[in-house]
Each structure stands twice: as structure tokens, then as C-alpha cells.
Design a protein that fits this description.
The complex is a heterodimer of chains A (675) and B (252). By secondary structure, chain A is mainly alpha-helical. Helix content of chain A is 76%, strand content 5%. In chain A, helix 7 crosses helix 25 and helix 22 runs parallel beside helix 30. In chain B, strand 4 and strand 5 form a beta hairpin.
Amino acid sequence: MVQNKIQLEKTHRNIFPVAFASLFVPGLGQILQKRFLRGITIFLSGFILAFLIQWSLNLYNLGQFVFGKWLTSWLFVPLAVFWVWNVLDSIKLRNIKPASPLLGILSAVFILFIIAWDVTDVKPNRLVERFGDAKIVATRVINPDYLSVEINGVYEICDWKCLSVNFKNKISGLPTQNIQMSENLGDIFGRIKRVSSIGNPIKPTFVTGKLIETIAIGLMATIFSTLIAIPLSFFGAKNIMDRMPGGNVVYYVMRTIFNFGRAVDTVVWGILIIVWVGLGSFAGVIALSIHSAAALAKLYSEEIEHIDPGPVEAITASGGNTLQVIRYGVIPQIIPSFLGYTLLRWDINMRSATVVGFVAGGGIGYFVLETIRMGAYQQYAAALWAVAVVIIIVDTISSRLRENIMLDKPKSPKKPGLIGYLKPIFLIILGLAAFVYCWTITEIDLKSLFQPGPTFIQILKDFSKIDLSSDVLDLVTKQIIITILQAMLATFFGAILAAPVSFLAAKNLTGKSRLLSWLYYLTRSVFNFLRSIEALLYAAIFVFWVGIGPFAGMLALVVTTFALIGKLFSEAIENIETGPIEAVNATGANRIQMIFYAIIPQIVPSFVSYLVYQWDINIRMATIIGFAGGGGIGLTLSTFFGSLQYHKAGTVVLFIVVVVALMDLASAKVRELLV
Amino acid sequence: MLKIEHLRKVYPNGVVALNDVNFSVDDGEFLAVIGLSGSGKSTLLRCINRLIEPTSGKITWNGVDITAAKGNEIRQIRRQIGMIFQQFNLVKRSSVFTNVLSGRLGYVDTLPSLLKIFSKEDHAKVYQNLDQVDLTEKAHVRADSLSGGQQQRVGIARALMQDPKMILADEPVASLDPVLAHSILKYLELLNKERKMTVLCSLHFLDLVHRYATRAIALKDGDVVFEGLPKQIDDVQFKSIYGQEAEKISII
């Protein structure tokens, strides 16, 4: 009682200074009350919103509004709402009950949404008006170039219609056309070469296809990054480094390196690497390996930090030294989770391997880029379907193996039979052969790492001459803003579409009837299928439909967002606790009440956290979607690269790295606060 | 003889775990350490083998100053002191054999040990010590497939690999079903009586102290509040150790 009174008096005494502080500088009142994170967030949000409003007014005449003599933007009205909320918040912070952030978040999101809609060039009418184009591209996509048929000495693609006609003729005994595998199929999967380039017959050899090359890139990158990450991860684990003199410094240095390597996306690494070793699969392998090694090392380190400290203590107590402690107390504990993370990384690396070729020039990504440039949509479609099949297979294998590893069943002590002895030997030989084969086809050339091309030094010099002249800065700033907002819109639309569907893909809600369980398998399959193709590969379809630009890129991102968010949401729903549902049901609540009181409160934090996570992922993808005509910073980068303006490309890369790293940090922080 | 003088431990967060602890233990004793949770029992035992660095004070064992030992010397001392833990501290995924073998690490060269190369004698020793705790037939199963009582016996076998002269047992039976307590403590009693190992064992239940210990000390808020024979712990002593609201309970 007495305490409450003191609290109240304090409140009355202090309202005015903090309110005025927040009125003059948003967030200052909060900072004065030692709520630093809140204050700084409010200050930065207010500053960024005001900047964006003025920027979009200058560049796009967005929200133009004449007020007396002033030309201004009506978007300053919602900003004023944000401002008022900030003052209210600083006052309410004094009270026992803090203010709801809803009004502040809503006004900020509203402003961002209006600007994003305009700069991303969202034109929903195009989706309808150009539906004819959509039909054309859809027809081509479902008739991929796999088979060809010779008509009057010219090879043509044998589509579904041609196949069905021939099939009918075959059954009714009519003459059929000579259908064979197409050249395009050979480009993708590989072909037997019987003739040399000069025309002489040679010994038949197998020439690898682009898809096989992609699989090899993903595999090699996984192997290399695992080998690099394992030793490094021990230096990034606090519980290990604390045992050594000076270990703390090493720990922080390693963790910083991991975070930097992770923040720079594979494709951006690719841009830097091609300057070093030139275009090709090898550049792709290196780029993937660097990013993946950093990501794996971070996960490994965290795993080492989370082991049961008991055995470490016991082995220390028996007189073991640090190396012995690691060998007997740490390593046996981390094997399953290390294997699990490596398998997960293999899955991710395979997906990245399908797009790294867009910049690094190797694998199916490069092939897709070429087909898009030539407008060869049936060839493009053939690649797309092939990628989907491979990724779905990889995904299935990886998740099955991970499930088994996580169960971590003890091996049966029975003596293995002859097959039991031969199996590992057979697997080792098979693995080695695959390794050597992949090594050859990804053209791994360790020497070239130490002998960069003659122009390397010159290009590197140009690159590091980061051009900060105002016209370049203006352009890059504009494109970066478009990229970030494009990613935001894509996250928003993807999530809106995915949220209702995700309930159908949750096993605990759909097990009831046969129809529902069919819907469960259907939605799950749709999610998995759409997820198997990267947004960069989808972009070409939307470029054809709505035209080149950020809108097309945004739509491509919506597709992948829909699939990934749908999957994550449905898993969040599956993971809810049944206790609260039981408790609410026991009070006599009906089904709707149960959903509102027992299910929604449980899933909202994870939904929001996934949204932030997805925005982060989408920004990474949006930075390169311009390579496929999807607008944003990727377009600028590919233009500067194409026209050999390396000093300007350097500026772009720097911006991308900074923005991606900042967003990564912010999203991690937000998710930490949410969960 | 183990002699502890003015031992003090203050954790970085300011908690005074041990204030000023003084006592000594003769060779061949079975000393019970009693006290409430948080009274400093675990800290005390871990200061003796320097798993925890004491803030100040001196610990001498048979004339060797444990508190002054550095680097390799600490490991030389540790390997002569076996330790048994409340949570057994086995590597659950490793076999019983490997867990027991790891008790020998203080005696072997680093490089061969990293490759898991141990001498024939060490291998024989594993079976010998497993036989001592009646677990020979479980040598090659994974540690997590054993019951709690069996896991603690593996913990004892691991400690025996060190050929210890002294055993520190930190609540060895607190994580076990009470009916298993005697089976574990009987092994410790055997080692104490037949193999003349000094045993320092922290315990919760007073009747276990009466049954096994030759002497007892009690800690309260980081100080020794009782030192003497177990049977000397009367009701007044009991209340002063455990607080006025405590009631004596007993297990089987």
C-alpha cells in the first residue's frame, strides 16, 4: 500500500520531463527511464520512417499533399500518430502497467506498407490484365523440353499432346513418330558423347549434365565446410576456451568471424570469389563452403557449449588434461548433433547450389540464367522440374536420416554377419568414388587458389575503390530500400496466404476424418514442392507474367514464403501443448472459445518470430532476385558487373553485406525477445 | 592425513559458499559430510581436488600442499583421488568399458590416449574393477542403457581405475531410489575397510551416516558446525544443523 503510494507520487512528479523529452526526441523519455533498448528502437524507427516518407515524396511524389504554401506528404499524419504514441508510452512507462505497443507498431507498419506498395511497383491489375501471358508461360512450364521428335529433318519438342497422340497411335497400331531424348535433357542430366568436336568418332564418354554438377557442388561444399567447421567450432565454444589461458579472446574472435561469414550470403560470396578464381563450378563450391562453414561452426560451437558438463568434470577429476577431456568427455556427446547439423546443411547447400550459378557460373543456376536470357521457357521448365525432384529427394533423405540420428538408438551388441562386415567397406568405397567423381566435375583446382588470374589484382583494386559519389550512393540507397521493402511485402503476402492453409497441414488438427487427412497430405506436398525451388528460379515465370521489375521479384518471393511459412506455421501448430486445450475444454468452453483461449495464445509468439525470420531470409534472396529480372539491388549489381564497373559493384556489395548483417542481427534480437 | 585450514570460497556472484572451514581427516577414515542443500558440501569436496579454486586457505594431504599445486601437479594429485558424483557423470553414449577406461587418463600419455590406445594391463584392470562392482557382463553396452544404480557402480569402477588413495563422493546416492542407497554405500564401505581408502562422502540421510561413517562433520552456511562421531548427533545438534523446523526421517 505504502509502496503503491510512493510509486504514484513518483509518477506524478516525473511525467512532464519524460513526456517533453519524448516529444522533442522520440525515445528520449524512454532512455531517461533507463529503458535503453525501447528508447533506441523508437528513436531509430521514427528517424527511418521520417526519412522514408521524405525520400519517397522526393523520388516518387508519394502521398503528395499541398498544405498552404507547403508541399508535403500525408504520410506524416500516421507518423504523427507514431509520435503521439511514443509520448504516451514514455508517460505510461512510469506506471505499473506498461503501454501496449500496438498503436506504435500499427502506424509504423502502415507507413512502411504504403511506401513498399509504391516502390515495389505493385500492380495487382496486371495479374488479371496479362493473364493471357500467364497462360502462355504456364503452358510452357508444364510442357518441359525433355523429349524431341524429328519432323522433316528438324527436331521439335515433344510435349504432352505429341506424347498422347503417339501413345494412341501406338495402341491402335498406327505409325508413330520417332521420339527420343532431347538435347536439353542431355544438357541437364548428361549425355554419352560419341563424336569429338572436330567430328571424328571417339570412345563413348559420359558428359556430365548441369544438374549432376549442381549435386556435386552441394556435396563438395558440405564436405569441405564440415571439415573446416569441426576444428574451428572448438575455438568458438566458451566452455572449452575457458579452460585455456587467453581463450576468451580467441572465443570472441572466432564468434565474430562465424557471424560475418554467415551474414554474407552464398551468392554475395560468389561475386567476391569469381574475381579470385574465375567463373565456374569451383567458384560456387568455394562460395558455398565459406558461408556453410561459418553457419555450421556456429551451430557446432553452440552444441559443444550445451553438452552435459558432468563427464567433463569427472574426467578432469580423474586427472585428464584438456585434450583428453575433449576426446573422452566432449566428442562422444556431440557426434549425433554434429551429424544432424551436417545433414541439415547438406539440404540447405543443395538448395543454394541451384542458384549460386547465377553469379558464380556453374551448375543448373547458370543454365537457368541462359535459358531465361534466350526466352527458352520450355528448356527452363525442364530444369525447374528436375531441380524440384532432386531437392525433394535430398530433403526426404536428409530428414529421414536426421530423425534416425536424433533417436540415437544404441547399436545392438550382436556380432555383425558377413554382410555387416562388407557393408561399411562397400559404403566407404562408394563414398570415395563419389568424392573423386565430384572433385573432377566441379573442376576443383586448389592451385588456382594460390595463383589468381592476372587481372585479379587490378579487379580487386577497382573493387576496393568503393565509389561513394552521390549519384552512385543515391542509386544504391534507392535499390536497397526497394529490396528491403520488397522482401517485407513478400513476407506479408506469403504469410497471409499461408496462415489459413497451415492449419490444414497440422497433423494434430487433421487426424479426425479421412477428407481432412487427405487435405493434410495434399497441403504438405504442395508446401514441400513449392519450397524445393528457390525464388530466384521462380522469378522468370513472373517476369513473363507481369514484366521485369520488383513486382515480379516480389511475387516470386511470395511463392517461396508461402511454402516455408506454411510449413513453419503448421509445425508451430503441431507443437502446441495439449494441457491448456484440455483445461479450457474442461471449463465447458465451445470450440471457437477453445481456439481463441488455448491455441492462438500459444502460436502467436512463434508465428511472429517466424515472420521476422522469413523477412530476414527474404532480404537475402531479394538482394539477388534482380539477377533474374526481379528488380532491387541485384539488378544494379548485375548491371555494374556486366559493364565492368567494379568500383561501383564494390559499393553495392558493401551495402548488401551491411544491410544483411544488420537485418540478421535485428531479427535475431527480436526473435530472442519474442520466445 | 588430509588437513584443511581456513578454507574459504567466494563465488564471483558474491555467494560465500565456504566461510572458514577447518578440519582434518586421518587415513582410513570414512568421513560423512552433512548439511542442508547449499551449505557448501559440494564446494568443499571440489576444493579438495581443485575442481573449484578456493579463494583462500590451505589444503595439505600427506604433506603435499594441494592449494599450491600448478598445472601438471594438480593432475598428478587428482589421479590419486577418485571422485563419485551425484549425477554419475558418465558419457551416456559411450560404452561402460570406455567410461571405466577414461578413469585411467591421468596415468597415460596423451597421444596414444587420444587414439584410444591403452595397455593390456589397463584393459585387464577395467574388467577387474567392473568385477569389483559386479558389472562384468555389462562391459560392452552403452552407459545409458543401465539403471541408475548400475550407472553409479560404473562411476565407482571408473574412480577405482585411478588406484585412488582417497575417494570423494558427492551425494552418491541422492539421485537413486532410496532402496538402492545401501547397495552403493556398501561398495564404498568395502573400499574403505578392505582396501584402506579414505572416504569423504556427503550424505543427506542421517541414518546412512550412522550406519556407514566413522566420523562426521556438519556444514551450515559455509562453516563447520559439528565435528565428531555420528552417534553424537543428538536432537539438539540435529536442529542446529538442519534448522528448527526439520524432522528426522529415515529410509529403510
